[in-house]
Backbone:
């Protein structure tokens, strides 16, 4: 391991990492004190999910205890401040109606409701507030960005991306290509892991750029790979592509924002899109966002809407479009107020935590501790010479707050149900991957210890059957 769980904290010399007391001691020294700001589902609720069509399970002594929730890479938990923020907004709607657009008791009228969220989000992105827009949903935003940045010509028409990208990204690329009357076989360059490797390497991406640079219009990758948890070297990819003359480089940051620190402006990334319901904890289907580097101020959005019009004259209704400065001109419609205030409240938790750097440092140690316990509680010599899983996530620093376990005999659906019965929530991807995400804003070192203990119990019980 390149990261030790004790590199950031000092544990008692009287305890060993394999002991739960060691984990509790690490928690006592963690700078993050935000767990109490989240509602964590109880174990009874999780257990009921394992048998949705059956009678309730018998009452267990720990039913009211918090579950072991390790699926924040899929859907983050509810920050309690979000409840308060939503209640306030519903009251304002009820008491003021349309007047809330310009007169608001909390001094953020709905006409500019996204301003606070933009300023809170920018430090997580490494962007200027003017380069950030709160809008839409992830895939629709990718389409909007490509409508402006992807302008294929007979000389430059190719898109370089990862073959194993999240399916929606690939669907978007295929439909963009077909929209321009082109053949995906001629246009789409997909980088795949080398034989025997679990992830793609920077060298492979560079070789693809070398081979296709003169014909490439856009390079587009996920900043953090959704299945393996691999962090891509976005700075190097961007610099290399631009050095080779590729006009634009963009990223899908769905699994990156709120997970790892980003420096989109300094890296000269041209554009990016993300969702807010994973590590940002803004709620299921929460409002998404885009980044457009200020150097691309002359790139014209492929589609326009009234919320992209300059704020000061938007309501003059002249019919002549005057774009907002920066990324704001890419907006189409006024954003959902309840979605935006949920995002703002969730982002304030990051600020209270001390910022993304603090979150990242604790996350690195949580993930390292998870890795340590998985390898020591499932020693090869006790597993018949082979563990039941392999960790497909790269070692630090090229990973975020996620370890992906490839289950060698598949059957992850049944494994997930067995973990539900133990009050454990993970995220599975058929046929054989279990994604475990220790989110430092609400997961503890004790959670990690308890999870591995529960996993060991489930695996050992299965062996005896």
Residues:
């Amino acid at each position: 391991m390149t990261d030790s769980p004790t590199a950031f904290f000092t544990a008692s010399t009287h305890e060993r990492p394999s002991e739960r007391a060691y984990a509790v001691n690490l928690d006592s020294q963690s700078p993050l004190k935000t767990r109490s700001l989240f509602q964590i589902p109880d174990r009874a609720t999780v257990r009921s999910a394992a048998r949705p069509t059956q009678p309730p399970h018998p009452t267990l002594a720990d039913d009211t205890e918090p579950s072991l929730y390790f699926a924040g890479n899929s859907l983050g938990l509810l920050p309690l401040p979000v409840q308060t923020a939503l209640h306030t907004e519903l009251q304002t709607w009820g008491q003021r109606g349309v007047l809330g657009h310009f007169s608001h008791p909390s001094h953020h009228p709905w006409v500019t409701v996204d301003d606070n969220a933009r300023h809170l989000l920018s430090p997580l992105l490494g962007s200027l507030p003017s380069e950030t827009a709160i809008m839409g949903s992830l895939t629709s935003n990718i389409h909007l960005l490509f409508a402006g940045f992807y302008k294929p010509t007979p000389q430059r028409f190719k898109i370089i991306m990862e073959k194993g990208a999240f399916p929606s990204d690939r669907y978007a690329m295929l439909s963009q290509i077909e929209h321009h009357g082109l053949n995906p076989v001629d246009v789409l360059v997909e980088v795949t892991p080398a034989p025997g490797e679990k992830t793609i390497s920077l060298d492979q991406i560079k070789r693809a750029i070398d081979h296709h640079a003169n014909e490439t219009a856009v390079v587009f990758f996920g900043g953090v790979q959704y299945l393996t948890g691999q962090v891509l070297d976005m700075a190097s990819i961007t610099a290399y592509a631009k050095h080779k003359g590729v006009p634009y480089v963009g990223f899908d940051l769905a699994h990156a924002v709120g997970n790892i620190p980003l420096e989109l402006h300094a890296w000269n990334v041209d554009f990016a899109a993300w969702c807010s319901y994973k590590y940002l904890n803004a709620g299921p289907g929460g409002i998404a966002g885009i980044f457009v580097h200020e150097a691309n101020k002359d790139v014209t959005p492929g589609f326009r809407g009234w919320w992209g019009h300059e704020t000061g004259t938007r309501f003059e209704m002249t019919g002549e479009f005057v774009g907002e400065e920066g990324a704001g001109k890419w907006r189409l419609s006024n954003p959902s107020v309840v979605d935006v205030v949920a995002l703002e409240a969730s982002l304030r938790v990051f600020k209270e935590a001390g910022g993304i750097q603090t979150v990242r440092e604790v996350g690195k140690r949580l993930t390292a501790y998870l890795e340590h316990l998985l390898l020591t509680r499932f020693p090869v010599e006790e597993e018949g010479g082979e563990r039941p899983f392999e960790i497909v996530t790269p070692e630090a620093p090229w990973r975020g707050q996620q370890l992906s376990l490839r289950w060698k005999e598949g059957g992850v659906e049944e494994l997930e149900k067995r973990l539900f019965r133990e009050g454990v929530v993970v995220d599975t991807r058929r046929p054989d991957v279990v994604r475990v995400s220790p989110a430092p804003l609400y997961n503890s070192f004790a959670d990690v210890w308890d999870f591995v203990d529960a996993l060991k119990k489930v695996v050992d019980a299965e062996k005896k059957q």
